[in-house]
Design brief:
Elements lengths: L6 E8 L3 H9 L12 E7 L2 E5 L6 E9 L4 E7 L6 E10 L10 E8 L6 H25 L3
Antiparallel strand pairs: 1-7, 2-3, 3-4, 4-5, 5-6, 6-7
């Protein structure tokens, strides 16, 4: 039996402070500006947002679970609000910790593949994350204080 790819990770160096990048990622209403699977996300309940998948027009739900101490944001996602699962995580690493200097950070998106996800849907998610990390970097850098 062949084990399918179980995770996918993308990262980029971002010309913004880590706390500014984290604040952007932790804001549920900003999700709809960069997440292709939850485009145009709007609040529907406390901490819950609903957007639209740009791939198939289906409704998508997400709850953002921020961890400011570790600069990590978990995304609980799904097609039904009562069935959200943590499948996406983001992390921000201050640039100074990696020798890049204080005014930059590393942004990372990590996805876990559930056992029920077929190869086509997984390829779509991987492609989306490759684009989303660029959208995310652009949004964060544009809004970062000079």
């Amino acid at each position: 039996m062949t084990t399918p790819e179980l995770t996918h990770c993308v990262s980029t160096l971002c010309a913004a402070r880590a706390d500014d990048a984290f604040a952007f990622l932790a804001d549920p209403l900003r999700l709809g500006e960069w997440a292709l699977g939850c485009w145009g996300a709007a609040s529907v309940a406390d901490g819950l947002v609903q957007g639209t998948s740009l791939f198939d027009g289906a409704p998508a739900y997400a709850r953002i679970v921020p961890d400011p101490e570790h600069l990590v944001v978990d995304f609980e996602v799904g097609s039904e609000p009562a069935e959200l699962v943590r499948r996406i995580s983001s992390r921000v690493v201050p640039g100074g910790e990696l020798g890049h200097g204080p005014g930059v950070c590393v942004l990372m998106l990590l996805a876990w593949r559930p056992a029920t996800m077929d190869d086509e849907r997984w390829r779509r998610l991987v492609a989306a994350h490759e684009a989303e990390i660029l959208l995310l970097r652009g949004r964060v850098e544009t809004e970062a204080p000079a």
